[in-house]
Write a structure and sequence with these properties.
The protein contains 20 helices and two strands. By secondary structure, it is mainly alpha-helical. It has one domain (10-442). It has a two-stranded antiparallel ribbon. Helix 5 runs parallel beside helix 9 (157-172), helix 6 packs across helix 8 (125-155) and helix 14 (238-262) crosses helix 15 (274-286). The longest helix is centred in the N-terminal third of the chain and has 31 residues, at 125-155. It is globular, with a radius of gyration of 22 Å.
């Protein structure tokens, strides 16, 4: 009996989730290696297929071959489906098919869904999965219709619709992979407010998290739009208030700083009109959290602009979203902890509520592990990628960990070991925020011996 129990506990939801993402990546790799996936009809090397499949499944956006010119429409469609599955989670799709077939969702499947959605409990997970899929479909269709007004006149009906759907999926899932060719992203559309604002809005919507949108929908549905808007500050949970507050501060603050850093840079926004300067500064602040689109050249940004981008990429989006990074709530909780310590409070206080020390410790662990991973990968890449500057290595590493996809141009020129290392970093970055908190919570429930308390001098 003990041996059976050990075998069963070996396959925990965290490990099943990790294996599920790895399986999707390998299936995508196999499909991309087919000659039909490449535009020239020649099979693409395994390492490049693995890298692109990992990037798409982990909704990162870093690519070693140009998406717009290298892949056929079959290959591009494979990438689009990998982005959708990676952004929403393969368990959401498995749940959808199970519901269509009329099959009940087992307890084990609910536990895996709990890990995948970063949920705190099992109640209402199936209903949340339905809401998630319906919400995703609605937003992506609406965005595709808006984008089609720009792409159909330029590319024709069929290609315009395809481009609209692909970039709507890529934007909402915070992947940032584009089809415009020559690694140009949307730099040729920097003065098109419809495309820039639509993609920027998709990034924000996808990065806020499904729990936030579900809560907002419930408040407006129960109270009406205007009444819900007036009473929102009272009815919102602490989590949603923290997500919206930190997100708003990062977007507004990031936009202002980007505008200041780049306004006199002739290689980015100096030659633009005032409206275009504000628009592109806003997009440059939005896209690092965590999509890989860029409307201005990232390599030509000022050192301050590039450093700000690294910070925003490391922070990322919000829990339960398609974004990566350490998450907005983690940052917000640590900031409020510092404020509480400065004020001489014993507990961390957020919006007049006390937060448990357990959550504070988990947040510190997440940041420490994330920084340790980035430092380790940068040191390894400094050995494998001879000639690359430290700034470029840090930029690419944080972009991979935060599942962002912005690059200074180093990714296509990586060595084979460098590609494998960054692919692993993207995989860890996608899984880490989903699994680390709950894994730590399970450890914290283990009761053991408590040793005598003592003091250490810090600071």
């Amino acid at each position: 009996m003990q041996e059976k129990t050990k075998k069963r506990t070996h396959f925990t939801p965290v490990r099943i989730l990790s294996a599920g993402f790895a399986a999707v990546i390998m299936i995508g790799t196999g499909l991309l290696m087919l000659p039909v996936s490449a535009a020239n009809g020649i099979s693409t090397p395994f390492v490049d297929c693995l890298f692109v499949s990992t990037s798409a499944t982990c909704v990162t956006g870093l690519v070693t071959v140009d998406t717009g010119t290298h892949w056929s429409y079959f290959g591009k469609t494979v990438i689009m489906f990998l982005i959708e599955i990676g952004g929403l989670g393969f368990m959401s799709f498995a749940t959808l098919f199970a519901l269509i077939l009329g099959r009940k969702i087992t307890l084990k499947e609910r536990l895996i869904m709990q890990e995948s959605m970063n949920a705190t409990g099992l109640q209402g997970l199936v209903k949340l999965a339905r809401y998630l899929l319906m919400f995703t479909l609605t937003v992506q269709v609406a965005a595709a219709l808006i984008l089609s007004t720009q792409f159909i006149p330029q590319f024709g009906l069929a290609k315009g619709i395809y481009y609209s759907v692909f970039h709507s999926v890529s934007g909402f899932c915070n992947a940032g992979i584009d089809l415009f060719g020559n690694f140009s992203s949307i730099t040729s559309y920097y003065s098109n407010p419809v495309i820039v604002i639509t993609l920027g809005s998709l990034i924000i919507i996808g990065g806020l998290g499904f729990y936030v949108w579900q809560e907002l929908y419930r408040i407006f549905k129960e109270n009406g739009f205007w009444q819900g808007l007036k009473s929102m500050h009272k009815k919102l949970s602490i989590n949603t208030r923290l997500v919206l507050s930190v997100t708003g501060i990062l977007i507004v603050g990031g936009t202002v700083l980007m505008f200041i850093f780049e306004m006199n840079n002739p290689a980015t926004i100096q030659g633009m009109s005032l409206g275009d300067k504000i628009l592109n500064a806003w997009f440059a602040a939005v896209t690092p959290r965590t999509a890989g689109f860029n409307s201005i050249s990232t390599a030509d940004m000022s050192p301050a602009g590039r450093f700000l981008t690294i910070i925003l990429m490391f922070i990322g989006g919000s829990p339960g979203s398609t974004a990566g990074g350490i998450k907005t709530t983690t940052l917000g909780l640590l900031v409020f902890t510092v404020i509480s310590v400065i004020r001489g409070r014993e507990d961390t206080e957020v919006f007049m509520k006390r937060i448990s020390i357990e959550l504070v410790v988990r947040s510190l662990c997440i940041v420490f592990i994330a920084m340790s991973l980035v430092v380790t990968v940068v040191m390894i890449l400094s050995i494998t990628e001879t000639g690359a500057s430290l700034e470029y290595l840090i930029y690419e590493t944080v972009s991979a960990f935060g599942t962002v996809g912005l690059t200074l141009g180093l990714t296509p020129n990586l060595s084979v070991p460098g590609k494998l290392i960054l692919a692993l970093t993207m995989y860890i970055g996608r899984l880490g925020p989903l699994t680390l908190v709950i894994a730590l919570a399970k450890r914290s429930r283990l009761k053991g011996i408590r040793y005598p308390e003592d003091k250490i001098i810090v600071g």
